[in-house]
Amino acid sequence: MSWSPTTSHWGAHRARAATGGTVEVTGHPDDPAPADLLRNADAVAHPTRVRAPAVRRGWLEGGGVRGSDEFVEVGWDTALDLVAEQLRRTPNEAVFAGSYGWASAGRFHHAQSQLRRFLNTIGGCTTSRNTYSTGTSEVLLPHLVGDADIVMRHCDTWDTVREHTDLVVAFGGLSAKNLSVTPGGLTRHSSAVAVGSLTGSGVELAVISPLADDGPPGARWYPVTPATDVALMLGLAHTLLAEDLHDREFLTTRCTGFDVFAEYLRGMRDGVAKTADWAAGICGLPADDIRALARRMAAGRTLVTVSWSLQRIRHGEQPVWAGLALAAMLGQIGLPGGGFAHGYGSMGDIGEAGPLRQLPTLPQGRNPVSSFIPVAKVADMLLHPGQEYDYDGQRRTFPEIRLVYWAGGNPFHHHQDLNRLRRAFAVPETIVVHEPHWTATARHADIVLPVTTTLEREDIGAGRRDTHLTAMHRILDPVGQARDDHDIFLGLAERLGTAEEFTEGRSKRQWLEHLYSRWRADLAAEGHDLPEFAEFWAAGQLRMPATPPRRPLAAFRRGEPLATPSGRIELFSETIAGFGYPDCPGHPTWLAPEISDRWPLRLIAHQPRTRLHSQGDVGSLSQESKVEGREPVRINPRDAAERGIAEGDVVRLFNDRGACLAGARLCDDVSPGVVVLATGAWFDPLEDPAQPGGTLCVHGNPNVLTADVPTSSLSQGCSGQQALVQVERQHGEAPPLRYLAPPRILGGDEQSVEA
Ligand SMILES: Nc1nc2c(c(=O)[nH]1)N[C@H]1C(S)=C(S)[C@@H](COP(=O)(O)OP(=O)(O)OC[C@H]3O[C@@H](n4cnc5c(=O)[nH]c(N)nc54)[C@H](O)[C@@H]3O)O[C@H]1N2
Ligand SMILES: Nc1nc2c(c(=O)[nH]1)N[C@H]1C(S)=C(S)[C@@H](COP(=O)(O)OP(=O)(O)OC[C@H]3O[C@@H](n4cnc5c(=O)[nH]c(N)nc54)[C@H](O)[C@@H]3O)O[C@H]1N2
Ligand SMILES: [Mo]
């Protein structure tokens, strides 16, 4: 059989059906660095696929416990009748459909857009704002630079960096594992190649991270103590100030509030000068190295970049703000290859040269309900309806939620303190989940509707800065009775009398043609002549026309004001200071992280190398990385020896909130005092006798350990990147894994009619 074009968040590729219902995949012929993640494609036929609509038995019978109940398979008509009835009886504001998550690539079958479009036809729902990725920066940066995109999306290309930059100072590193991923996917992964060859092209690279492998070979590693980057940045800034290496002209004409920040650096009010020696005592790097780095930064063209991970911890505003202030002192913001950026090494599209343009998009309609939460407040909302909280200068109140609807995300992957999330998920009357797989979220739902994956349907797809638009051909038949999210919502809309509004009379194929044709017309208005849909579909892809490069910071440097109150970069923000939040003052500030004698190790729960979040965890690449079936945890040999832990041992990570098992990998790339357990191992909870009321995740999901606390009252962002833990060898036999098989399902074949 021949290869068909498709795309994924980890890149465009080719696929074809293989025996056993699975697929074969191969990289796109133009891709210089196809993603390893392609190897997880065989997850599509895994036994964890949801085969038929299923309803939690306890929900039908008025009892049971979400997350440990069995399910009853029902036919599609019954399932859709049940969901429609619940939607009919629930007030719209009491329906929470924030439904955060990455789902699959593809512009039409984007699960969250389909969900919101459908719910908007029946009166709307409570939603969520911002992301787990950059929820803190999305709120902070508009106060500092007017538009977050100018430091997160309009960054210099890697070619510009290679040509102009002498030194890249990368707080959080430039992690190769992250570069294969971009929402919607890329056809050519040039960033992966560019980062790998940076130092070879004469660019100096300072990787500031607790992990050596956050940078490519040739980089200089600065093993900073986690959560202390702000102290380091202040120590660098103080050195620039003390040695008169700062750009006064830029600071007075292009920034506001440097005087306040400089007073803080000198310790005029708190009596603590933020010298390199002061910083060294906190961040673990020698003071001489800090001073030398500051001088080096001032001696040439320097790019300061802060990875997104740094704002995904408590007080996550501070490293972003302090990094911006440091770059402002160098006075190179807006010069090619210099200044400040946020997210190189976090996502594959940052630094790519492809066009940044609007892609074909499914219109979602208008949500008549104005109620929303910042995305990471989901457990707080469910547990504390009516409670007030702060958010970006507003005082808001949690709505009372009776029905939770999730399509395209996995909160039992992405949220913190999963034992608390279990308590929160016990609250609503009904939880509906659309899922291809029996994820932990599906297992905590009442009504689980099986959906297709991209391979089982037709779509069009591309990512930000992608070079091509891909015609995503259908490669497999739907697994079991799986339906497209769109068809499920159509079934509901028919029952609720809004089918015409939902579909506008178009079939799925007509929607693809419609979205494409509208997009084509927009491009025609710009003078680009693109083929008709049929021609595009047959070709399998088209090259996207280039966009004129936009360098908003260069324009700012030339005198164009920013959309901030002062029109300048705000190193002190009167607005933020005016909110009076103790956990986010008016200028970059060192706010010491929590430490604890009981929990002496700092866990880094970063993005996984072997999958996208939880997606593909049952695929080959991810499965091959497991140790005794458990997720690998990396630990420095010194910390392992102190605990009698050997390579390959099953270990237990624990703190006040919960515990999980993992498989030990001893590794010198990890600083002493740090352990690394990537996110995304499917939550596999077992009642834990040692932790009354809590559970032990026998597989290795770090979110049983992370705290459900916001970054600050300003942004209420996700702080899940780190947690304080202890680690010990697991004594006795480790409990069996259960996540690789579906939950207990009753009724099965008699009740469900093959589609
Ligand atoms: N501790 C800690 N936690 C974190 C982070 C961290 O750094 N540390 N990072 C956070 C970040 S940055 C993010 S973005 C989040 C990611 O969190 P999520 O985006 O929720 O994670 P995914 O595993 O991608 O979940 C997507 C789900 O959608 C399902 N799916 C795929 N295609 C379809 C479809 O077509 N339709 C439907 N209905 N479902 C589909 C998949 O099976 C999967 O279960 O995690 C966050 N969580
Ligand atoms: N393979 C793969 N790639 C991905 C994803 C995935 O799931 N899999 N997810 C994508 C998504 S949704 C997002 S939002 C981005 C996220 O991009 P990031 O948030 O930047 O990625 P992480 O891997 O979580 O963190 C990057 C590195 O930051 C370092 N770090 C952690 N804490 C500290 C600290 O206190 N100080 C310093 N200096 N460094 C620290 C860690 O060592 C870690 O390896 O990644 C994207 N890329
Ligand atoms: Mo993310």
Automatic annotation (TrEMBL):
<keyword id="KW-0500">Molybdenum</keyword>
<feature type="domain" description="Molybdopterin oxidoreductase">
    <location>
        <begin position="49"/>
        <end position="495"/>
    </location>
</feature>
<dbReference type="InterPro" id="IPR006656">
    <property type="entry name" value="Mopterin_OxRdtase"/>
</dbReference>
<keyword id="KW-0479">Metal-binding</keyword>
<protein>
    <submittedName>
        <fullName>Molybdopterin guanine dinucleotide-containing S/N-oxide reductase</fullName>
    </submittedName>
</protein>
<dbReference type="InterPro" id="IPR006655">
    <property type="entry name" value="Mopterin_OxRdtase_prok_CS"/>
</dbReference>
<dbReference type="InterPro" id="IPR041954">
    <property type="entry name" value="CT_DMSOR/BSOR/TMAOR"/>
</dbReference>
<dbReference type="Pfam" id="PF01568">
    <property type="entry name" value="Molydop_binding"/>
</dbReference>
<keyword id="KW-0574">Periplasm</keyword>
<keyword id="KW-0560">Oxidoreductase</keyword>
<dbReference type="InterPro" id="IPR009010">
    <property type="entry name" value="Asp_de-COase-like_dom_sf"/>
</dbReference>
<dbReference type="Pfam" id="PF00384">
    <property type="entry name" value="Molybdopterin"/>
</dbReference>
<dbReference type="InterPro" id="IPR041460">
    <property type="entry name" value="Molybdopterin_N"/>
</dbReference>
<dbReference type="InterPro" id="IPR006657">
    <property type="entry name" value="MoPterin_dinucl-bd_dom"/>
</dbReference>
<feature type="domain" description="Molybdopterin dinucleotide-binding">
    <location>
        <begin position="601"/>
        <end position="719"/>
    </location>
</feature>
<dbReference type="Pfam" id="PF18364">
    <property type="entry name" value="Molybdopterin_N"/>
</dbReference>
<dbReference type="InterPro" id="IPR050612">
    <property type="entry name" value="Prok_Mopterin_Oxidored"/>
</dbReference>
<comment type="similarity">
    <text>Belongs to the prokaryotic molybdopterin-containing oxidoreductase family.</text>
</comment>
<feature type="domain" description="Molybdopterin oxidoreductase N-terminal">
    <location>
        <begin position="6"/>
        <end position="41"/>
    </location>
</feature>
